[in-house]
Specification:
about 120 residues; mainly beta; Immunoglobulin-like; five-stranded mixed beta sheet; three-stranded antiparallel beta sheet; about 50% strand
Amino acid sequence: MRLCNEQSGLEFEARFESADGAPSIPLTAHWRLRCVTNDVTLKDWTEATPETLVGDSGAIVGVRVVIDVDGALNALVDRTRRRETREVQVVAAKDTPREYSETLQYGVVALSGGR
């Protein structure tokens, strides 16, 4: 599991592909951030704009969104803990029959070792 210090900003990249691995442009893309340890939503659903990546030949080689998690969102919710687990969830085509979701978890570590 990836770890970061509390109050540290992070960047994540999500790529969109079809079942056969070809780049796929989703109808929509959204993300949210939760503290799994304390069962708290830190940032509710936020729309993200997919970026099409084009190779030297002019062909589409990828589709991605870049998610910037502000350091303030990585403040510990419960200051008595030394570590909390965060979960970033990215959804393509949210609220449609073709909705697809992936999650990634990471740890936030107290700089002071907890209080």
